[in-house]
């Protein structure tokens, strides 16, 4: 039943950077299903920009592993979704192609950096999309737009063909309206690929089960503390109450290392970005560099002109935190903090099966409400811990505050992605009943 | 305390062009951000790269690669099957 899918969405949200009017599809588990792909994942023959002017017009000569798998499963790749430039942001507002609007309320941000994927799913333009998440970039927009978004365990989905931003943290994951569809998409993309050397051969083959009787659910006080909107805290506690009604046991836990999580994340992320973005020199791809100038002059001018202000700010901060006199004070300490938080989670998971809390400390806001970089970095407070620990984490919609969606975040042990999916599925089934 | 001349120096190390007008704001923001980072200095010990990560080796054998046209297709400036770059020396 192979064929072509005609795709002409009413994209009033600016969810897409590129759409494919006629998308070919084949046979398989996702035969004929429209799937949107975040624009930092390489698609052979389809422009891939990372929402940056420095990659405008770039046509990858090869597919990312996840894209090979999507095509192999018969999916129709219908377009590339908007994002913060190189994934650097939590609002999709730093895109060189203009911001994405939140379909729930067009005056508000969709979250980020996978905001285009979240908006495309929330608006019903596609049933499923791929996002990427280094510190919450799938879970944040899923929460803000009222959909389901999942960051798998590090090493479960190949990043081959994902344009590198923060290599030790970033994962590719599924986004959809339901947990069942997230699970379905995950079972296509979670396949071993030796080209990502951080991969483990643990394919995902699972159908969600809503049976959670006897499950121990940890509630960390740190996820309901300072900076978290109290109304969100209440909404999430009542969602956790649903899990208790289903037979789960609630247990207080503590992640003391969380106080260092945000600065550790920012330092690691910016340090890695400063190295990864060094490849944009206008030589092999991107806008042509002026070959008459000297190397440094040409390189500086090109990057000054074509990289956005947040990308330049982060490359500069990352260069600083890796430079002599700072690397020991910042980068080495950030790695130590990362180990501590990983141990905190391991300790907690020796007592509980799942940890639950809010995904975001606020609901979706208006673009002009939060503009200071430091305030924006702080929005990731509840999503970066799972990223630093490399554990699976999902955001599932759990009601509204001020008529805006709230996300329940569920985190599990490494490689227990199946259990995280099951608990989210159980909540979703009960919540919709 | 990060000064505008520090910003200029880092920008040179990173090969990132920044304009004169941007310097004061970058300097101001960097001081606030570094102050926020400084809590990390009280973490005990020095960390190793990502826990659980190990070197992955493979045999150094030739494998298929992209054809030359595909490699050159995205380059802004090419000549005689090569990519042109600015003078390094």
Topology diagram in text:
The complex is a heterodimer of chains A (433) and B (89).
Chain A: E1 3-6, E2 16-19, E3 22-25, E4 34-38, H1 65-72, E5 76-81, H2 115-122, E6 128-133, H3 139-145, E7 148-151, E8 171-176, H4 179-189, E9 216-220, H5 230-245, E10 249-253, H6 261-276, H7 295-306, H8 309-322, H9 331-349, E11 354-358, H10 373-378, H11 384-389, E12 393-401, E13 404-412, H12 417-432
Parallel strand pairs in A: 4-5, 4-6, 9-10, 9-11
Antiparallel strand pairs in A: 1-3, 2-5, 6-8, 7-8, 7-12, 11-13, 12-13
Helix pairs in contact in A: 2-3, 6-8, 6-9
Chain B: H1 4-14, H2 23-37, H3 68-72, E1 78-79, E2 82-83
Antiparallel strand pairs in B: 1-2
Largest interface: A-B, 69 and 51 residues
Protein structure class of chain A: alpha/beta
State the order of secondary-structure elements of chain B, H for helix, E for strand. HHHEE
Q: Assign the CATH architecture of chain A.
A: Alpha-Beta Complex
The largest beta-sheet of chain A arranges its strands as 2-5-4-6-8-7-12-13-11-9-10
Oligomer: heterodimer
Radius of gyration of chain B: 22 Å
Instruction: Tell me the span between the first and last alpha carbons of chain B.
Output: 34 Å
What fraction strand of chain B?
under 5%
List how many beta strands of chain A DSSP finds.
Answer: 13
Q: Which consecutive residue ranges of chain A, at least 5 long each, have pLDDT under 50?
A: none
Number of domains of chain A: 1
Question: How does the major sheet of chain B shape up?
Answer: 2 strands, antiparallel
């Amino acid at each position: 039943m192979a064929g072509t899918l005609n795709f002409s969405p009413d994209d009033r949200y600016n969810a897409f950077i590129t759409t494919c009017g006629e998308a070919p599809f084949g046979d398989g588990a996702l035969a004929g299903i429209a799937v949107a792909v975040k624009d930092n994942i390489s698609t052979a023959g389809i422009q891939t920009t990372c929402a940056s002017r420095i990659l405008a017009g770039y046509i990858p000569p090869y597919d990312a592993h996840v894209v090979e798998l999507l095509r192999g499963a018969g999916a129709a790749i219908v377009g590339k979704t908007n994002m913060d430039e190189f994934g650097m942001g939590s609002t999709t507002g730093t895109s060189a192609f203009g911001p994405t609007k939140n379909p729930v309320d067009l005056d508000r941000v969709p979250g980020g950096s996978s905001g285009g994927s979240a908006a495309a799913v929330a608006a019903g333009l596609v049933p499923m999309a791929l996002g990427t998440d280094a510190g919450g970039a799938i879970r944040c927009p899923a929460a803000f737009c009222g959909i389901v978004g999942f960051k798998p365990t590090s090493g479960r989905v190949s990043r081959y063909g994902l344009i590198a931003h923060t290599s030790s943290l970033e994962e590719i994951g599924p986004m959809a309206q339901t947990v069942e569809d997230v699970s379905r998409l995950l079972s296509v993309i979670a396949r071993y690929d030796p080209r990502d050397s951080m991969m483990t051969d643990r394919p995902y083959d699972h159908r969600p089960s809503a049976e959670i009787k006897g499950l121990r659910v940890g509630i960390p006080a740190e996820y309901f503390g300072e900076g978290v909107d109290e109304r969100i805290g209440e909404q999430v506690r009542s969602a956790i109450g649903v899990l208790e009604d289903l037979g789960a046991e609630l247990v207080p836990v503590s992640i003391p290392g969380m106080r260092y999580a945000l600065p550790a994340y920012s330092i690691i992320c910016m340090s890695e970005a400063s190295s990864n973005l060094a490849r944009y020199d206008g030589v092999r791809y991107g806008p042509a560099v002026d070959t008459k100038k000297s190397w440094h002059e040409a390189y500086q001018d090109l990057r000054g002109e074509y990289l956005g202000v947040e990308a330049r700010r982060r490359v500069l901060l990352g260069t600083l935190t890796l430079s002599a006199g700072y690397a020991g004070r910042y980068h080495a300490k950030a790695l130590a903090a990362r180990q501590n938080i990983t141990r905190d989670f391991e300790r907690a998971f020796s007592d509980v099966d799942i940890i639950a809390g809010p995904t975001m400390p606020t609901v979706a806001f208006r673009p002009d409400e939060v503009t200071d970089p430091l305030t924006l970095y702080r929005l990731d407070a509840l999503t970066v811990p799972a990223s630093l620990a490399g554990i699976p984490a999902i955001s599932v919609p759990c009601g509204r505050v001020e008529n805006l969606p709230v996300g329940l975040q569920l985190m599990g042990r490494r490689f227990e992605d199946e259990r995280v999916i099951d608990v989210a599925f159980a909540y979703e089934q009960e919540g919709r009943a | 305390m990060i000064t505008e001349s520090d910003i200029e120096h880092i920008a040179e190390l990173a090969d990132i062009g920044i304009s004169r007008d941007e310097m004061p704001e970058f300097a101001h923001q960097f001081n606030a951000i570094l102050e926020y980072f400084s809590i990390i200095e009280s973490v005990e010990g020095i960390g190793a790269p990502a826990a659980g990560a190990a070197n992955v080796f493979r045999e150094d054998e030739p494998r298929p690669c992209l054809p030359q046209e595909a490699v050159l297709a995205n380059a802004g400036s090419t000549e005689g099957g090569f990519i042109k770059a600015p003078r390094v020396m």
